[in-house]
Amino acid sequence: MMQPVARFRFSSILSIAAPTGLLLVGLMLAWLAHDRPLAPQVAHGWLRADLLSALTLLLLAGYGLAAVVVSQADHWRTAVVAWCYGMAALTGHLALIAALVIVGVALQPAALAQRRLAFASALATAGGLVLIAVTSGKWLYAALGAGAGLVGGSLVLLLVGTVLASKAQSHLLFVMACYALLRTFSLGPWALQWLFVALVAGTALALWASWHATVASRALLPGWVELVMAGFVLVGAGLGAGAGVVLASYALLIGPLVLLARRPSFPLPNWPLLVLVWMAVAAAVAGRLTVLAILLGLSGFLLALALARWSAPPLRSAPVGRAGEGLALVGVAGAPLFVGTLVGPLVAQLQAGLSPYGELVASPWTGLLVAYNAEKEYVASLPVFVLVALGMVLAAAGWLILRVIGIHRSADKPKVPDL
Amino acid sequence: MIELLAALGQAWPRLLLYPGGLFALGASWMLCRWLAWVSRQRPACAGPVTLASLPGLLPPMIVLALMPLAPARGFPYGLDLVVALGLLEWPYLRRGIAGSEKVDRMLLLRMYGPLLLAGGGMAEANASLGLSNLLTVPEAPVARGLLLASALLWLASLPQILMNPCAAEGGCSAGDGPKEWPLASLAARLRALGLVLIGMLALLGFASVHSEPWLTATQAGWLLPPLVGVVTALLLGVQLRMAPWLQRFYVGLLVVLVVVLLVSKSVAWLV
After folding, report:
1. Is A311 in Cβ contact with B127 (below 8 Å)?
2. Contact partners, residue B233, CB within 8 Å, separation at least 6
3. Which band of pLDDT confidence, cut at 50, 70 and 90, is reported for residue A418?
């Protein structure tokens, strides 16, 4: 009788402790690799970590913790898979990354539906990585000349892996597929036609998913929103510029909040998703792709309709709902901090493969997000802190005026004599 | 941080007087009366503003306060088209369709499609989404034509969005007037004023370019916004009095024009 209880305790402790450990390692790595990638000489390139690795660790931890809250079973497996993928993000050997991706998908929770899709996605991602190595003849991605492996076949396999992972709703695998996709930018630039393929695929996915999200029921809505966000990640990769990487990173960062919204009492993060739509449109205009910006704006409008439809959950006053709104607020107010301190240096580290067509920068202390085009001209701006501050000032003024008017009105009424 | 606090300190006249605050309240009231007179409807009185309706009022008020209109002093943290549209429309959509069983996507797309296209056209004309950039008229003739056509399309799509009571505003919250008159609540009036002013910005840019030989910058700052505002209101009135088929034809013509100019501008940039 005692054994199941002990097992339950061990697995529940593991399921919380393992992602928390990953989170701490990620934060430490973000601090250590802030200026240049960590690649100790003794490891001969097998161990290599930069800010993209740190961001991946943080995302794996976030998705792992969110999965523990949302799902019921197999928590320890989720923790083990998260660590397995975390190791993959820390190594510089392409074959080892590919192997760890496949091991991770084999270890994934048995309850996961669409196992075949997840396997196909892992195989495509691993195949893309191996093809890069085979074509270029370099198995360490940091080696000189590894960029020669960025041929059509490998990029298509990585794109297919990302789409399948988002369709399989296997979140940790999706983070890993996005890691592999964004990692290619540290090898070298993509050919123009493959950027175009990524843009078309991402826009089509975002439009299709947002069209369905508009009429989806509350239980199915987070799944569709995740697909829209996957489309934005692909668009971010397809833009092949700093602004695109910021867009993809922010989409991945707010993913755990959308995953948490699978619980009916947890609200969807409306404001962070609207910031994401702004980033997508701004990045497209900064890249001088106005048609893409209009299509992304359309997708964002449909997404906003879907969010507006379910924006007043019945359990609004419940503590879980309030916690969700608090987290969404942190997601918005933390966006300039996230972009300024983590993604800005990350874009600088991936500079080898990025074009100058679009840059999204933030000043963490004034809360201003600004997009610039290739000529360094101002394209779009989102002054987060100014909007919040003005909103607070106006709300306080409105409250005060209403109170004063209310007092006058109540003073007009004839007083009931005290008896 | 100090920079932010200093900028917020300069925002007081904008928040209280112009272009937000008192001006926004007065102008939105006048716009509501004008639209009611033109469309031959009785303007319903706005109900008393309550604490519950404050969250719907704040976003449009912030957009109006940060509108780059002369003679207000410039503000370093300006908005762009996407943020302004989001702040104006999100509370409205949320109030209108929250909790509704079915959403008529096609109707909403017919309403908002031309508006999104016009926004894209304005962004392409100046290669920027910034509201303050709408005031600068580009040199190239194609870009110039695109900006003008997009601004006209923006204004042409407004009657559908402003005067359609059944589209999104299903349930009226407390403090709203009768359902028939769509601009009854203060939040809806401020939203309408915001949308009209965005369309007006590009026209203001054209007016300031053409009046350059006769007016100094200070005179233009004081004179042009009210003049162009009156012209914009008259244009809206004409559109509201148009026969429905003529209105559809006008919007369709502008859509085709904007698409053609957008494509030619993009191709010219690529080649």
Report:
1. no
2. B31, B34, B196
3. very low
* Pairing label, strands A359-363, A378-383: unpaired
Cβ-proximal residues to A207 (8 Å cutoff; 6+ apart), any chain? A231, A295, A298, A299, A302
Name the token pair of A68: 């523990």
Give the closest residue to A202 by CA, choosing from A242, A172, A247, A246: A247
Given an 8 Å threshold on Cβ–Cβ distance, is B100 in contact with A399? no
Least trusted range by pLDDT, from A59-68, A305-314, A349-358: A305-314
Q: Tell me: the pLDDT tens digits for B234-264?
A: 999 999 999 999 999 999 999 999 999 999 9
**Are A293 and B120 in contact (CB < 8 Å)?**
yes
- pLDDT higher than threshold 60 for residue B52: yes
Q: Within chain B, what is the greatest distance between any pair of CA atoms?
A: 58
3-class SS of residue A140:
strand
Chain B residues in contact with A290 by the CB 8 A cut-off are 120, 123-124, 262, 266
What tokens does A117 get? Answer: 């899709």
Which of A281, A288, A316 to mutate to probe the B interface, most B CBs <10 Å? A281
Task: Give the angle B197-B201-B206 at the CA atoms, nearest 5°.
Answer: 145
Helix (H, G, I), strand (E, B) or coil at A369: strand
Q: Tell me the H-state helices in A350-417.
A: 384-412
Distant-in-sequence, close-in-space partners of A38: CB < 8 Å, separation ≥ 6: A29, A32, A47, A48, A49, A50
In the three-class reduction of DSSP (H, G, I as helix; E, B as strand; rest coil), residue A46 is classed as coil
Find the mean pLDDT for residues A29-43.
87
Do A341 and A334 meet the contact criterion of CB atoms below 8 Å apart? no
Instruction: Check residue A259 and give its pLDDT.
Output: 94
pLDDT tops 80 at residue B24: yes
Tokens representing residue B28 in the block: 């939105």
* Each residue's pLDDT tens digit, B75-101: 888 899 999 999 999 988 888 887 777
- The DSSP letter of residue A38 is B
- Residue A93: phi and psi, rounded to 5, are -95, 120
For residue A332, the distance in angstroms to the closest alpha carbon of chain B comes to 13
From chain B residues 64-123, the ones with a CB under 8 A of any chain A CB are 65-66, 77-83, 86-87, 89-90, 93-94, 96-100, 102-103, 105, 108-109, 112-113, 116-117, 119-120, 123
Query: pLDDT of A99-108, one tens digit each?
Result: 999 999 998 8
Strand arrangement, sheet containing A378-383:
A359-363, A368-372, A378-383
**Amino acid of residue A361:** V
Which residues sit opposite A360 in a β-bridge?
Answer: A371
Nearest to B91 by CA among A274, A384, A321, A337: A274
Q: How far is A359 from chain B (nearest CA, A)?
A: 13
Residues in chain B with CB shorter than 8 Å from the CB of A374 are none
When scoring A386, A393, A404, A408 by the number of chain B Cβ atoms within 10 A, the one with the most, hence best to mutate, is A386
CA distance A31 to A345: 11
| Nearest alpha carbon to residue B224 among B242, B210, B204 | B204
Euclidean distance between CA atoms B118 and B134, whole angstroms: 12
- Give A13→chain B minimum CA distance, Å: 39
Assess whether the previous peptide bond of B19 is cis (omega < 30° from 0): yes
Q: What residues contact residue B103 under an 8 Å CB cut-off, 6+ apart?
A: A214, A215, A305, A309, B97
Burial call A213-250: b when 16+ CB within 10 Å, e when fewer? bbbbeeeebbbbbbbbbbbbbbbbbbbbbbbbbbbbbb
Report how far residue B160's alpha carbon sits from residue B152's, in angstroms, rounded to the nearest whole number: 14
Residue positions counted in chain A: 419
Please state the separation of Cα A184 from the chain's center in Å: 18
